[in-house]
Amino acid sequence: MADTPRFNPKDPAHDPAEGEGPIPRQQTAEQPDEQENGKPAVHPVDEKLPPLKMATTGLQHVAAMYAGVVAPPLIVGAAVGLSATELTFLTGACLFTAGLATFLQTLGIWNIGARLPFVNGVTFAGVAPMLAVVDSTDDKKDALPIIFGAVIVAGVLGFIAAPFFSKLVRFFPPVVTGTVITLIGVSLMPVAFGWAQGPSPDAPDFGSATNLGLAGVTLLVVLLLRRFTRGFVKQIAVLLGLVIGTVIAIPFGATDFGPVAEADIIGFPTPFHFGPPQFALAAIISLCVVMVVSMTESTADMLALGEIVDKPADEKTIAAGLRADTLGSAISPVFNGFMCSAFAQNIGLVAMTRIRSRFVVAAGGGFLVLMGLCPIAASLIAVVPRPVLGGAGVVLFGSVAASGIQTLVKAGLEKDNNVLIVAVSLAVGIIPITAPEFYHAFPETAKIILDSGISTGCVAAVLLNLVFNHLGRGQDRDDVTAPMEPAADLPAHRQGAGAH
Fold first, then answer.
1. What percent of the chain has pLDDT over 90?
2. For residues 445, 178, 486 and 103, what is the CA-based torsion angle, rounded to 10 degrees?
3. Are 95 and 375 in contact (CB under 8 A)?
4. Stronger pLDDT, 447 or 230, i.e. the higher one
5. What is d(CA 73, CA 137) in angstroms, rounded to the nearest whole number?
6. Are 240 and 234 in contact (CB under 8 A)?
7. Which of 257, 206, 293 is nearest to 84 (CA)?
8. Given a cut of 50, is residue 36 above it in pLDDT?
9. 312 SS3 class
10. Residue 206 burial class via C-beta count within 10 angstroms: exposed 0-12, middle 13-18, buried 19 and up
11. Rounded distance between C-alpha atoms, residue 396 and residue 220, angstroms
């Protein structure tokens, strides 16, 4: 790199027609940090675009991740039994806290924030453990306070561990991260199937042909939009599928506009609206495992994004990014939000649009905060019928599993050790899905952890990778999977991933 220009104006990746903005001036070895006029060169990551372009491209990032942000509160809120009004409040709170976490990541303060075009929001990895907490709680009113208390503790511990975790990247190669991401998608597929059948198992039309038909039509609309459209429309295919599916559901009486009519125009996510946090050891352990999973995913995403934007993420950047993730997660429950992590689908958006400015993503964070402060905007998602959500969820959750498979393809599965790691970890992780009563004889506190396939699968993958690929210096050391390297495979298999 020392004798080659960092930016090449003839490179098609820097074509302003593709929407990247001004072409950076060519830098030489003699002038690595200056333009021809002697002023410091502005890296595309730090470039501030015109206001209109900043706003529209920021909205595009919101559109790409909106469905992913609102899905976890919908899933958990429905399991708790929240009313439509409370569900709207919880959804708005998660949008608000996602915006705050995105600010921390993109703008940064002190040694907090990767200062890359990095979108943060509610992580899917925490959904299954949170549902396990809900199922094990006798009084459902206590479920959210217990979850919030566990997330706060996990966030604080993660913040403290961030600089140390950034040094342990070599223990989380693609064979581990790919397994975990695959389990996230597989573990959430039953949620999509449940939505497709209807809002409640007790309803007379649960699983009816009408409900399944609405789910199928929504799925078909999303697929057609992805196949036959381009650009911005293609990026928001899931969002458009939800809108079209909702409209189609109106004649069938499946669409309820009550939440919109009851929502206020302006509101604020009152701190600890659902009660002060409660601290249960089993829930804390489960969410701490999720935090490790989340930090692993974020590390992989930062390595990939750093290569995409031509600003490789070093150990210091990773540590700062993890601090933003964990601090955002610790603050989130105060405003009734859940654990926050990176949104990989937005990394794909950066790669496709070639707009690398972190301020664009910060503008998207601003829109998320505004949506969180406008309950009527957050209530719109509550209008979407569950079968319609189910149809879109098949794509959303399935893409997460597909992203994990893409990662595993690059993980060196031609090596027997890695095949065993993946095989056993996936088997352990899908036990709660395929055999829900498998751990029925265990104490309830242990079941909170064991009933989360993501948590158990992650622990199994990490331990097996240590045993097979790191411990000892025997004859199998030449089969060790290479750790995640910024310049290796990550951009190729992560840039289009939708892990959240």
1. 13
2. -50
3. no
4. 230
5. 18
6. no
7. 257
8. no
9. coil
10. middle
11. 13
Q: What are the tokens at 408? A: 């595993």
H-helix or E-strand containing 69?
helix 51-80
Helix (H) or strand (E) holding 341: strand 340-342
Question: Two tokens at 44?
Answer: 């595309």
Reported as a single tens digit per residue, the pLDDT across 315-363 is 888 899 999 999 999 999 999 999 988 876 667 667 666 777 888 889 8
Give, as one character, the DSSP assignment of residue 477. G
Non-local (6+) Cβ contacts of 285 within 8 A are: 448, 449
Find the mean pLDDT for residues 248-258: 82
The model's pLDDT over 177-203, given as tens digits with 9 standing for 90+, comes to 788 778 877 877 887 888 889 877 777
Least confidently predicted of 132-136, 179-183, 470-474: 470-474
Instruction: State the Cα–Cα distance between residues 405 and 400, nearest whole angstrom.
Output: 9
- Count the Cβ atoms, other than its own, within 10 Å of residue 17: 6
C-alpha 151/C-alpha 138 separation (Å) is: 20
Asked if residue 468 has pLDDT above 80, the reply is yes
Task: Tell me which H or E stretch contains 323.
Answer: helix 315-331
Q: Give yes or no for a contact between 397 and 189, defined as CB atoms under 8 angstroms apart.
A: yes
**Tokens coding 121:** 């929001």
Pairing type for strands 340-342 and 120-122 reads: antiparallel
Q: What is the pLDDT of residue 358?
A: 86
- Say how far apart CA 60 and CA 63 lie, in whole Å: 5
Residue 292 CB burial class (10 angstroms; 0-12, 13-18, ≥19)? buried
Q: DSSP labels for 163-225?
A: HHHGGGGGGS-HHHHHHHHHHHHHHHHHHHHHHHH-S-TTSTTTT-HHHHHHHHHHHHHHHHH
CB-CB neighbours of 193 under 10 Å: 15
* CB 112, CB 159: distance < 8 Å: no
